[in-house]
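We were asked to recover a plausible sequence for a given structure. The inputs and outputs are reproduced exactly as logged, with field labels preserved.

PROBLEM: sequence recovery
POSITIONS: 292
GIVEN STRUCTURE:
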């Protein structure tokens, strides 16, 4: 059996990672160079310079996924060089890895965003029609438990709602994360991007908890596809965002996305200063114990 279906979004240009930052003297110069040249997920933050993406794929395999589509940028060659240069079904530790390329439209300096990235993946994997799949970022390390929860869900659409207080990031960074709002039966009815302090207060649960989205969704191909096609470009970011497409879908289909509450940290590789933090997390949590 090939295993469950997973899309990993790695088509961005990693503009935040490439920004100059202070206090980089303690970071391996090789990794600083990779951060400036590669996709974030291909930075060798692991043991013996193993790329970050290996750890996400390891967790995915442990959670039962085997049919993997990585959305890559048109100028990203490092991913294919590492995982195989065939368009589809590259063999990697029991998984089959395929690629969908997200191009940069004429007149733009970067791709059209995460909704467009997923659209390219689904246009490529038409054999997934009528089926469910999971989609996630390439620069977050989601746990085996979270990935398996979505693989096992009986619902056509579901997401992981993370307890904001369990995330181990600076407060100002956490406050920029999208917040979630669900009904009394745990169905999502809103995702608020860049929430204001007032909006954050309104989404608190009865016990004072705040849920955030880390772009980890289980989706039915046939239900989400039309919303990926028609989602507008966000006025502020200038991109087509996956959370907006999801919000459009759940507005039209009431109680169509179930939420699972998770209280755990999700390592993130967005800025150069994240490199040493992620290195320590991987060393303590995995050591040499993946893909033996």
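RECOVERED SEQUENCE:
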């Amino acid at each position: 059996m090939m295993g469950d279906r997973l899309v990993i979004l790695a088509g961005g240009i990693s503009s935040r990672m490439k920004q100059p930052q202070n206090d980089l003297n303690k970071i391996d110069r090789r990794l600083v160079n990779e951060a400036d040249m590669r996709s974030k997920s291909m930075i060798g933050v692991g043991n013996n310079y193993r790329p970050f993406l290996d750890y996400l794929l390891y967790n995915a395999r442990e959670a039962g996924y085997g049919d993997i589509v990585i959305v890559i940028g048109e100028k990203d060659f490092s991913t294919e060089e590492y995982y195989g240069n065939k368009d589809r079904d590259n063999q990697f530790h029991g998984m089959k890895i395929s690629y969908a390329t997200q191009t940069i439209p004429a007149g733009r300096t970067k791709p059209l965003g995460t909704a467009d990235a997923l659209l390219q993946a689904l246009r490529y994997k038409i054999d997934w029609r009528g089926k469910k799949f999971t989609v996630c970022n390439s620069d977050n390390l989601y746990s085996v438990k979270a990935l398996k929860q979505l693989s096992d869900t009986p619902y056509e659409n579901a997401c992981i709602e993370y307890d904001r207080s369990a995330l181990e990031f600076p407060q100002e960074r956490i406050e920029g994360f999208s917040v979630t709002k669900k009904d009394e039966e745990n169905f999502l009815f809103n995702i608020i991007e860049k929430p204001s302090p007032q909006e954050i207060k309104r989404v608190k649960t009865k016990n004072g908890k705040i849920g955030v989205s880390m772009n980890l969704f289980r989706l039915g191909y046939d239900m989400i596809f039309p919303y990926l096609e028609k989602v507008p470009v966000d006025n502020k970011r200038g991109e087509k965002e996956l959370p907006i497409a999801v919000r459009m879908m759940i507005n039209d289909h009431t109680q169509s996305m179930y939420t699972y509450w998770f209280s755990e940290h999700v390592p993130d590789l967005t800025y150069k200063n994240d490199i040493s933090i992620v290195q320590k997390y991987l060393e303590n949590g995995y050591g040499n114990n993946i893909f033996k």
